[in-house]
Amino acid sequence: MPRLVLTVIGDDRAGLVEALAEAVTAHGGNWEQSQMAELAGQFAGIVVVTVPADRADDLRSALDGLEGLLDVSAHPGSEEPDGVEDWRRLRIDLVGSDHPGIVHDVSAVLSRHGLSIETMTTERRDAPMAGGQLFEAHILVRVPPGTEPGAVRDELERVASELFVELSVGQD
């Protein structure tokens, strides 16, 4: 069955997930994986569904019908490339005073080493006792064969010291 990757966004209110799930189920689809959150008053998410090939176009039409409630874009999904299951995983956690450039500098290190971000969660919150804002990130990356995790860790630690953030890197 074809996989579709749905991106969804709409004004946050009750019933959004149910409306999306109803459209998927009504067309014989199966909800496989999702990540969703309320961000700045908007409900946003990414959903992976499978749907019978002969019903995919009907599902796309039904998703277009959710306009006004949710804006949904359907993109063809693909299977993971061969051998990706052999890639190691690293978990990267960082926290520090919020300022522009943290995500850019950390993602640049990951890109230089050929690492692929599997998941990334970030948030900004009040700093207890010190005032100001803290930035916190939790990143799970895939490390291709032949890449030395120690070299990645060393460069991330150097960047973390320049950014004045605390960093931990560990095998997942």
Structural class: alpha+beta
- CATH fold group of the largest domain: Alpha-Beta Plaits
The residue-averaged pLDDT reads: 94
- Principal-axes geometry comes out as flat
Number of domains: 2
Fourth CATH level, the homologous superfamily of the largest domain: ACT domain
The CATH architecture designation of the largest domain is: 2-Layer Sandwich
> Runs with pLDDT <50, length 5+?
none
Helix content: 25-40%
Task: Give an overview in words.
- It is a single chain.
- The chain is of the alpha+beta class.
- The protein has two domains: 3-76, Alpha-Beta Plaits (2-Layer Sandwich); 84-171, Alpha-Beta Plaits (2-Layer Sandwich).
- The mean pLDDT is 94.
- A hairpin with a 6-residue loop joins strand 6 (116-126) and strand 7 (133-143).
- It is built from four helices and eight strands; from the N terminus they run E-H-E-E-H-E-E-H-E-E-H-E.
- The protein has helices spanning 16-26, 56-64, 102-112, 149-163, and strands at 3-11, 30-39, 42-50, 71-76, 88-97, 116-126, 133-143, 165-171.
- The strands form two sheets. A four-stranded antiparallel beta sheet has the order 2-3-1-4, covered by helices on one side.
A few lines on this structure:
The protein has 172 residues and is α+β, with helices and mostly antiparallel strands. 27% of the residues lie in helices and 42% in strands.
Task: Describe the structure using short key phrases.
single chain, 172 residues, alpha+beta, Alpha-Beta Plaits, 2 domains, four-stranded antiparallel sheet, 4 helices, 8 strands, Glycine cleavage system regulatory protein
